[in-house]
Amino acid sequence: MEKILIIDDEKSIVDLLSVVFKKEGYKVETSLSxxxxxxLIDREDFDLVLxxxxxxxxxxxxxxxxxxxxxxDIPVIMITAYxxxxxxxxxxxxxxxxxxxxxxxxxxxxxxxxxxxxxxRLKEENILLKRExxxxxxxxxxxxxxxxxxxxxxxxEKIAGTDSTVLITGESGTGKEMxxxxxxxxxxxxxxPIVSINCGALPENLLESELxxxxxxxxxxxxxxxxxxxxxxxxxxxxxxxxxxxSPWTQVKLxxxxxxxxxxxxxxxxxxPVDVRIITASNQDLKQGIEEGKFREDLFYRLNxxxxxxxxxxxxxxxxxxxxxxxxxxxxxxMGRKIKRVAPEVIxxxxxxxxxxxxxxxxxxxxxxxxxxxxxxxxxxxxxxxLLTPSRELETGFLIQPGFILNEVLDEISCNYVxxxxxxxxxxxxxxxxxxxVNYRSLRYxxxxxxxxxxxxxxxxxxxxxxxxxx
Length: 471
Hints:
4 domains; five-stranded parallel beta sheet; 14 strands
């Protein structure tokens, strides 16, 4: 129940208004003096105050001043006689919501009070929504207290204070978009939207239209003018995920936009100015892409003004218990489950697992466990089989000799992992990409690069042969 305080030195008015608003479903407190009213305001929380201007001791104007200083969210409605309308207008200037004139119309007063309470509710809802968004994208949702994460938080705070373009790198599942949203949420642009688009999820012609917009009739299906993401994100932030997946033509248009701060819609001739902060992300090595002629060097340097590398989960194992607790609470709340504890041996298995899919994979594993677990304790038997299989750690004692070439060694390691994934997935590229924590296009590129097409075909032939034998 919403609570109203009524202040007037005329007992008949106080009694009348008390009956009226109690019938409306409000909780009502009353006071015949300003001193008692101020005590009530200090002691209790009111949703609205209705006060006469002329009161013994302190006036209604002094009560208004006190509320504006001490509890500024409470709306105040002034009651005045004809001779004090000038004071009522002055009260509006000093923060009163409205005023009514004696003798007042009760029905009109009920409407004014209802409107005042509605404004307060809307204001509170806006504050709660803003707080929820800030919590969602603040550091509180980037779980981790390890040294590497504390350094990350500090860097994000510094980055947020600028308008420079940012390139966020890191493996799939490390939280690159979350970092982008944290930067936006802490920046001066936080009142405006952050708009995100996955560049690897759209074909070239559609991506160009999504980014820059198009004019009616510019291509088949363009039945109306359309705003692009640059326009939608005006005064805010545009997050371009998987920037390494963009085509050479899109890269040219992005470079021009960054240089000129204008866009041209598909099929259009007008140069439209834009004020947008650009944050990009990639799980690919863009410098390698430059060497291979797949990514423009001049665009890379435009995007890489400030770089931020998200650490993989295997390099922040101290954060795993915190993350496990966070995901358990999250999914238990969503699914109405009760899991009270995690067996110590389970935490040990979590910490020893390499997590190729990083935090995203950990979250998925916990969601699956919560969904199917019937016990209040997560035990070893609750875990998926891949966590129970000892992982093969990479050897760290590389012998560096004359002629050593780092890229060749890294390619060899990558090739071995791709082979293992293809073998585990029976040659299925989509499943292999999921195992490796990369997208389909990236894996297809690696298969071609390492000449593993034959290897894939051999797996498929073997699979067909096994199927025939089984028949």
